[in-house]
Amino acid sequence: xxxxxxxxxxxxxxxxxxxxxxTVKIFPxxxxxxxxxxxxxEFGSIxxxxxxxxxxxxxxxxxxxxxxxxxKMFEQPDHDAFETFSHLGADANAFTTYTNTNYxxxxxxxxxxxxxxxxxxxxxxxxQPAAIEREKKxxxxxxxxxxxxxxxxxxxxxxxxxxxxxxxxxxxAGTLTSIQQITATxxxxxxxxxxxxxxxxxxVAGAVDPNEVLDxxxxxxxxxxxxxxxxxxRANLTAQEIQGPTIKNRTIILPTQRVKVAFGVKGTDSVEIxxxxxxxxxxALEMASSLYFGELSDNYQRLYQQGLIDDSFSFEIQVDxxxxxLVLTGETESAAKLFTNLEQIFSQTATSSPITANQFExxxxxxxGGEIAALDSVSSILNQDQGLLFDxxxxxxxxxxxxxxxxITVVNAxxxxxxxxxxxxxxxxPRGENQ
Length: 435
What we know:
alpha+beta; Cytochrome Bc1 Complex, Chain A, domain 1; five-stranded mixed beta sheet; 2 domains; single chain; globular
């Protein structure tokens, strides 16, 4: 087990890879009472099309299959894993993203038993056709619920604009039509392709002894037999013909109180997702976004004073496997005026930077402070782990990279991002009238 020390924080992490390929990361936290664990699988909603092993042709599965699989994993032949966690005093959950699926729990009791429960139900599939049909109704209700959520529709709408032919244009849960097409065979094939220890990362943070926890995990895994790992060939989703041309402007009508808008920027420059340089680029974009659009920025204050934004205005940078984008969202009294101002800001900052050294240092301390504060949350430590991205970067790597960032690096990353980027505007209008 490799131990990496971070003396400036009096912290360390322990990393190892078991003989079956499972990557294990342990973050011991002295003085903590709570322990959290997360098992991450490198299979997300965009992984609809892939081939396994010697198969020559890739197969496309119904949209939402990764999320559906997440739901069904908790059901076991004679019990539900959620109930087991509850009896053991743990809070359990799971969630699917565009690129991975995560199963997790937090507890102050029965850490070993909960850890074994986590490993056991994720590594022992049980797909009963009748139960799958019942689950379709449950997930269907979830899809309808999100369809009625204007905030979710705003975010989904701008992604559909940016990537109209890409799986990102589809809801993570799929559609009412696509989930009806999912079969037990589909779930099993996806499980066999991605739910192998070589494509999983188990993370544990909290009041634990690393050697003891590793012994528990090794003992648990030694009792199981896994087939040889097969290489998975995912569809090339970076190809422009798969992403589709950006939709420049689109408006939909929903019964909201105010006009909701989203402004999206799709990056097309190359990003090294497998190395720490990709992490540096991602954090530089986040820093730049904060400098230009964060609450302390001149732009934010000006737009706020003009009444074009309110405290709902926010931004999100996403740099992930095969895609990266910036999305700005908020409510406004005039979508047209806000969009015009945002376009001017992007145009100006694409070639010059009005940021002073003092503004940069203030934004850097703010970002760094948030990361350091996250060290006091075991759940945040696990959620900020990058899995197989950026050379398996952890929250400690993020802090180190932020400390090393300088203004020139941040501005260069921002301008490189904008140089070939495409832009899109999306609006939810409650009256059906463009502002």
